Amino acid sequence: MSAVNDTKFNFAVFLLTGIPGQEDIQNLWIPAPLFLIYVISILGNSVILFIIKTDPSLHEPMYIFLSMLGITDLGLLIATIPTILGIFLFNSREISFDACFAQLFFIHSLQCIESSVLLLMAFDRFVAIRDPLRYASILTLPRIARMGLVCVLRGVVVMLPLPLLVKRFQYCRANVLSHAYCLHMEVMTMACADITVNNIYGLFITVLTVGLDSLLIFLSYVMILKTVLSIASHREFLRALNTCVSHLCAVLLFYTPEFTLTLIHRFGKSSSPLLQIVLGYIYLLVPPLMNPIVYSVKSKHLRARIIRVFVK
Asked: Which of 93, 119, 312 is nearest to 214 (CA)?
C-alpha cells in the first residue's frame, strides 16, 4: 500500500508540450514565426496605447475602450510568453505547480476581462448610433473608469477559485500537459481525485462570462441593426454600419475559437487533438496580433496619428 501511496508524490512539476507529435516542425519552422507574432503583437498594442495616451483628440469613449482591450491583450501576451517561447525556443518544458496555477489564473481572468471589454465596446457602439446627441454625456470618463473597474473585479473574483480548486488536489497521474501553457480544464484532469466540483464550476463560469457576454453583444447588435434600418439616408446607413466593423472583427476573432474549443471539449471527444492544440494557440495569439491591425486599418483618425508618429 505504501508503494502505491508514494506514487502520488513522484513529481513536483508539470511538463509542458509545444505541439504533440510534431517535434520536427516544432523545433525547425515554428520558433521564428512565433517570436515574430509576439514582437508584432506587443509593438502593435504598445503603439496604439501610446498614441491614445498622448493624443488628446483620441480621449473619447471608443478609443478608451480600445486602450482597455490593448492592455488586456498585452497582459495575455505577458502571461503566456515565458512558457510558449520557453518551449519553442529553448525546449524548457518544466513548470512548477504554483507557477502553473498562477498562469492559469491570469490566462482565464484576462480572457474574462477581454470578454467584458468587448461587451462594453458593443454598448459604446449602441449608444453612439442610437443616441448620438447624448453620447458624450452618457459615457463620461468617470463612468467609463467605473465600468472598467467592474470588468477587472469580475474577472478576478470569478476566476480566483480556479487555482484554489486545483491546488487542493494531489497529482498522481501523468504530469505531461498537451499545451505550452496551463489551463484549468486540462490541469484538473491530472488530479487523482473527484473533479466534479471543478467541472461544474468551470461550466458555470463559462456560461456566466463568455456565454452571457456574447448573448448581450448579440442583442446589442440586434438593436443597432434595428436603429440603422430606420435611417432613411443610404449614406448615413453605411456610415453607421462602418463604425461597427472593427468591433465585429474583434468579437469574431475572440469568440469564434472560444466557442469552437468549448464545443470540441464538451462534445467532440473523437476530434483530432492537433486541431484542439492549434485552436488553443489561435485563441491566445491571434486576437492580440490582429486587434491593433484591424483598428488601425478601419479607424481613419487612429491611422492618421500612427502615420504621423512614424513619418516624424
From this structure: 119
DSSP for 140-188, please give it: -HHHHHHHHHHHHHHHHHHHTHHHHHHHTS-B-S--B-SSSS--HHHHG
What pLDDT, in 10s, does the model give residues 154-210? 999 999 999 999 998 888 767 888 889 999 988 998 888 888 999 999 989 999 999
User: Would residue 53 be called left, alpha or beta, if left means φ above 0 and alpha means ψ between -120 and 50 degrees?
Assistant: alpha
Of 182, 183, 180, 177, residue with least CA distance to 11? 177
15 — phi, psi (to 5°)? -105, 120
Q: Note the pLDDT tens digit of each residue in 115-168.
A: 999 999 999 999 998 888 899 899 999 999 999 999 999 999 999 999 999 998
Buried b / exposed e over 193-209, threshold 16 CB at 10 Å, is eebeebeebbeebbeeb
**Dist. CA 39–CA 203, nearest whole Å:** 34
| 182-to-34, 98, 289 alpha-carbon distances in Å | 18, 11, 21
Checking phi first, is residue 131 left (phi over 0); if not, alpha (psi -120 to 50) or beta? beta
For residue 3, what pLDDT band results from cuts at 50, 70 and 90?
A: very low
DSSP state of 57: G
Written as nine digits, the cell of 59 is: 480621449
CA 69 to chain centre: 9
Distance CA 129, CA 241 (A): 9
Mean pLDDT score of the chain: 87
pTM of the predicted structure, to 2 decimals = 0.91
